[in-house]
Structure formats: C-alpha cells, structure tokens
Amino acid sequence: MRLEKCWFCSSTVYPGHGIQFVRNDAKIFRFCRSKCHKNFKMKRNPRKVKWTKAYRRVHGKDMTQDATFEFERKRNRPERYDRHVAEETLKAIKKIDKVRVDREARHYAKRMKGKKAQVQKEAANELEQSIHMVKAPAALQKEPSLTLPKVYQKQTEDRMEE
Amino acid sequence: MVQYNFKRITVVPAGKDFIDIILSRTQRQTPTVVHKGYAISRIRQFYMRKVKYTQQNFHDKLSTIIEEFPRLDDIHPFYGDLLHVLYNKDHYKLALGQINTARNLIGKIAKDYVKLLKYGDSLYRCKSLKVAALGRMCTVIKRVGPSLAYLEQIRQHMARLPSIDPNTRTILICGYPNVGKSSFINKITRADVDVQPYAFTTKSLFVGHTDYKYLRYQVIDTPGILDRPFEDRNIIEMCSITALAHLRAAVLFFLDISGSCGYSIAQQAALFHSIKSLFMNKPLIIVCNKTDLQALEGISEDDKKLVMEMKAEAMKTLIGQGGEPSNDEGVLLTMSTLTEEGVIAVKNAACERLLDQRVELKMKSKKLNDCLNRFHVAMPKPRDQKERPPCIPEAVLEAKAKKAEQAAEKQKKLEKDLEDENGGAGVYSASLRKHYILANDEWKEDIMPEILDGHNVYDFVDPDILQRLEELEREEGMRQEQEADDDFEMDGAEMPPEEQEALAEIRKKKRLLIQQHRIKKSTAESRPTVPRKFDKDKKYTSERMGRQLSTLGLDPTLAINRARSKSRGRKRERSIDKGDQNGIDDMDVDGNQPNKKLRFRSRSQSRSRSKSRPPYEVVPGEGLKDSAQKKKAIDASSIQVGFILHKLYTESCELSYPVLEVALKALKGLYGYRGESYCGGLVGSRSLLSAADDLLLDE
C-alpha cells in the first residue's frame, strides 16, 4: 500500500480514492478526485492553475528546495528489516515533519514581510484621495481633518425643541 | 521434389516490358487525380505514394526472380555442376548479382526521393521529383536489361531439363558416341530418344524409368564421351561427366565390339581407363553391344586382352563392395539392342547390383530405423515351459536398491503436509515469514507500519537516517538563532478610529456605486428608459437631496429652497408672500412642507411645460380624444362643482375655507390657468355666492 501524489494538485491520494490513468507510453497519471481528473482532461497545465501545489512552487509561494524534502525519496532497493532502524525511522518522521512545518511558516513570514506597512500606506492613500466621496470640499475646508463630517442638523428641530 | 523442378520459375520479363508493366500498374493502382489547390501535405503524400509504390513493385518482382532462380551452392552438386556446365556459374551468378544490385539501387533512389518529396513546396516541384525518381528507377532496369534477357533464356532452358532425382535408384549409361546407349534406353524404358547414325545425336541427358522387383529405377542416357583431356571437353561431354561424377548410380559402360561406331576397342578401352576414377564406389557393368554384328568371342586377341583388363577393373569395384568375387557374370555382359538379345539380362544385372549396394549402405547407416518396418525380426517360438528371465548381475541390483533408499530418505516435510495437519486449506494459513533471514530472529513477526501521518514510511527508511536527522536539527537550531537576531518589523503608525470610520464609509460607497453600475449594465438591454417624470421609487426628492447633503456636511437649506423655487409650487405661496423667502403663511395650514400630491396636481408642471397652452387643448396622455371631448368634460365637472358650491354656501354659512379651497383648486385644475386667476380673484374679492353664480353663468 502506498500513498501517491495527485499528478495535478500534488495532494496525497489515499487508497480507495481517485483515478489512475495509464497512457499508451506507459506513463501513469494519478488523480485525487474528479476535479483534478477533469482539469487534466481539459489539458490544463497545473503550473498555471492557481490552487495547485505546482503553481505555488513555481511562483515562489511555497518552499521548493529544502533539506527536509530529501528525506522522503522513493527508494527502489529493498532493505532488510531491522527493528531499530524501523523505530528510528518512525520517530524521525515526526521530527522531520515538525522541522518542515516550521520552515514553511518561516518561508511564509518572509514572503509576507512588508505586507502590513504596504497595506497601511495604501489605506492612507485611498483615504486621502477619496475623502471627497464622504465629505464635501466645503466641509473639508472648514475642518481639514480626514474624518467624517458632522451631519448638518436642521434649525427647525432646534426651534421645535424650543 | 520441388527444388529440382525448374519449371516453376516465373517468367523473367525483358527490360522494357518490365518497365512498362510496373509503370502501368502504378498508374492503375494509385490515385491519379491531384490539383495544385490541395493542401501541400496531401500533394506530397500523393507523389510519395507513387514513388513508394513503384519501388515496392520493382522490389517485389526482382526479389521473386532472385529467389526463384536456384543458388548453385545450395542445390545438389549434380545440379550445381550441371548448371555450371550448361550456363557457366560465374555468368549466372553475375546476372543474379546485377539484379540484386538493381534492386538495392532502386530502393535507395526511392528513399532519397521520398526524403526530398517531404520538403517539396509546390505541386510542380513534387511532380518533377516523382518523375525524376521513376525515371531513374527505369534507367536502372534498362541497364540491367541484358541480364534479364540472359536469365530468361536460362529459365527457358532449365525448364526443359530432365527432372532427375539424384537420390533415388539410378542407372547411368556411358560410353563413346554411337555405341547404342540411346537404343538401349529406348528398349528398356518408354523414353523416346533420338537414334541416328551420326555421332552426338544425344546432346543432353535423357531420363527414362524402368521397373525391377517392384521398384522404380531411373535410367539416364548421356551423350557420348570422347577420349580427350579434361580441359578440352565440350559442354555436351561435360554433361555426362557431371552425371558420372555426382550421381550415385550403377554405371553401364557400353562397348561397341563391332567397331561400327567408328572407334576401335582400343580407343574405347583408353577412354574407359581415363574415366575409371569416376567409377569409384559405383557398381560397374561392362556391356558389349552390337553382338549381332560381331560376337564377343570373335574379336582379336589384343581387343580381348583390353576387354579383360576392363573386366578386371570392373571386378575390382565388385570386390570393393564386399560382394561375391566369384560371380563375374554380372560384370561383363553382351547384348544386342537390335535383336534385343540380352537386353533384359543387362537391365536385371544392373538393377540387382545397384539394389544390393544400396541395401548394404542402408544397413550400415543410422537411418536403419526408418527402414525397419521393411524388415522382419523373427521371434522364436517357445519350445517348452521353462522360464528364461533376463539375467541381471547382482551388483546392478544392489546399486539400484541403494539408490531407492537414498531417494526415500531425502524426502522432507513439505508445507503442504503441514497445512494438511493443521486443518486444511481454509483453516491454516502458512506463515510466510518463517524463513526470513534477519539479524535477530525475534523480529520475524514484527509488523511495520507502511503509512504514518500522510507519508510512506518506506520512503524514509535509510540506514543513516539518524545522522542526517541530527544534522538537520543542528541546522534548524542555528537558523532559529538567526531568526531571533533578525530585527523586528517596524509597524507604521496605525490609523486613528475616526479615520478608519471614514475609510470604511468610503469603501462602502465605492462598493455601492460599483454594484449599482453593474446592475445597470447588466439590465441595460431590458430596462426601459423611463423619463424621470414617472419615477415611482421617488428617489429624486428634495428631501432626499437634503439628507444626502447634510451627511456630506453641507447646509442643504439653500439648495432645497432653490430646488423648490425652481419647481413652481402652489400659487398661494408664491403670490401672497413674495418677500418671504421661506413662504411661510399663517393661513397656510400645510406649513412649509408642500404636499407633493397637491403640487403634482397643481399647475406648476403644466406651466413649466408650456405657457401658451389653450384650456381645451388635449395633452397626449390625458385620456381624452379631442378638444371637444375635453370641453365637455370640463363643463360637466364645473357644473357639478358650481352646484356643490352653491349648495354648500346656501346650506351652511360657516363654510370652512379649506373646503372651498379644495373645490376651487379642483376647478383650477380643470379650467386651466385662466380659471386659476379667475377663481383666485373670485375667492379673494367677491362674495362666494356671487362667485358660484358667476361660474354657473359662465357656461
């Protein structure tokens, strides 16, 4: 039993899920669900479809090269069973996962580094440019702060109150 | 046997005919129509097909020629030599080689031109390429024409060769020309060979068949051989020499003792001695022919001596075969074909000798089993009841017993037996791990997980995984330290909440605008262009405008007033208090807020439209057909109003002003602007009654 990777979106295909397509040149394409399968049949390039891992890697959204990826490699040579090795491997998998997750988080943080400042700058800009939509120029002249104007209250109301 | 049947070779066409055949076939069997308007790939394909088809046909035909003509090295040496003698091996091979070369050349031409055709860019170019290709192929064939003609001649000659089976019982007749060989064969077989007084009547081999003891014998008549050195012999003689050399046959050497063939016995004896090497291992019989002209006893001493010598030679062959040396009757025989005396005897003797020799050979050969059914093995009849079993020595018996013992010992317990013991197939499942070779035998029954946390465990298995993991962790630790050292991100100043509110408001407005625009855009085709007059949502009121302006922070009153002033409101407001901007009247119960309904019904709109409209003019949209109808309607309604007024005033003097106001307003609406001023004047200055009477009179 093996967990495979979906050819289109690179998610894991668990046993009992998905479809496998074998082409005439004996290349096997595995899909995790019909969405990926249908996209493939439409001849879409996964590197151009935003939600796939391939796209994310190509466009630098996700980590591409890392030492943690080297641990997981399909080895075709069978190894003789050794209990210690098996134990160590199982423990190692967990640690490697943790390291990988940390690194991915760091990658994300680096990617989003200047985002906050940029957002704030943009907001300030927008406010300054479009303040005329909520505050008439006359009111702006009178009160030059970039805030909502005080709504004009009718004199009659005052009079009625009197 | 097929391979010796040269009649099956297909006709070899002459060069020109060959070309014609192939080209006409190409013309017929491939599509013929192509226009220059077709796609270029289609044009190319068309011409490529023609070239390939022609090449294929040439190839096929030339291949059949090459295959069907026998290869001189592969056939029986008798035929090989015979063909060599007749047609000259080298010449023959050359001709076939030329055909082969032609075939290869044509293949090459086709390949090259097909390659060129792949890049032909116009119909004309492709066509000329095809013409060139076919032309070259035809030239090749033309060049090879003489070879084709030669092969055709050979074929025709080969077809006429006698079908001699080199492996069956054969009797060969040889001797000087004119000694009577053909007459002999004519006598014993049904062959009809030419017999003429001149020498070399028989120019080639002839075959006849005869029977002896229920077996069929081939009798081969050869052309006469002259006594010459080997190199000087002509083709005809070489035929017989070949036959002698290669066929395993009984040889009948004919001797003309009368000398009427034109050659003396001495000459014939000389010939005999010169070719006696060819008689090796062949039963030889010396036949003295033409005894009717000269008896064997009557020849001279020298001749007799020569004949005896020959006989001695013949005896040698007899002895060599391990036959009976004493029987010299079968070696030298006399006969006369003319009187048919002794002919049968000769034949019998020859057949007998041949048969004996062949049987002996067969007995010695390995193929005895094939012939075994023709032999009979006699079984002795039991003469008494005594049993005589086969005698096996003791040692052999012991050895056999020991072997059986060992075999029984080695039998180990099979898995199948184990399965049977433990309950059969469905109950017991064999432990496949029993024989695993592991470092520690306790691990044999270990279960190892294949999947963990979405990974395949087998992908991670590595002997030095620990070490690598350590490195990784170290690296990670270092990196984390670095991260801690990295400076913190500077946050810009946060926006104060009021500004945030403003921004939110801006964004909301933008979104709304976009939404509305999208709706408008999407429904543009199906939305009617309704003029603002019939706006039922009542979006465009001065109230609303006022609200919007006030939210923007402006004072809306000026704008509202202006808007109202632009729209002509009720007369009362305007005419009475022109000075008062706000138009507030104590008598004005409705107050400052003009009633929209009344305003709409008032004259303002119609006034804004056109000031010069006569009272009875029918405005489209009113529902009246023409002015006459309108007049009638107005008069009808005004009468009623007048009546009502009259009634009201007479019945009750405390008529509330507002009621009258309403009624007069109604009149105004019907009467037009004239009525308005009229009624207004009336109401203001004169008494109400007289006003009502006036109205009545006015009609």
Automatic annotation (TrEMBL), chain A:
Keywords recorded for this protein, A-Z: Nucleus, Ribosome biogenesis
Region Disordered, residue ranges: 138-162
Keyword Glycoprotein among UniProt keywords: no
A Gene Ontology biological process term: ribosome biogenesis
Protein location: Nucleus
TRASH domain ranges (all copies): 6-44
GO cellular component term, pick one: nucleus
Keyword Repressor: no
Main location (coarse class): nucleus
Family: Belongs to the eukaryotic ribosomal protein eL24 family.
Protein name, entry field: Ribosome biogenesis protein RLP24
Organism: Forsythia ovata
From TrEMBL, chain B:
Superkingdom, natural source: Eukaryota
Location of this chain's protein in the cell: Nucleus, Nucleolus
GO molecular function, one term: GTP binding
Listed Basic and acidic residues bias regions: 403-416, 473-482, 532-546
Any single biological process term in GO: ribosome biogenesis
Functional description taken from the UniProt entry: Involved in the biogenesis of the 60S ribosomal subunit.
Protein family (similarity comment): Belongs to the TRAFAC class OBG-HflX-like GTPase superfamily. OBG GTPase family. NOG subfamily.
Protein's name in the database: Nucleolar GTP-binding protein 1
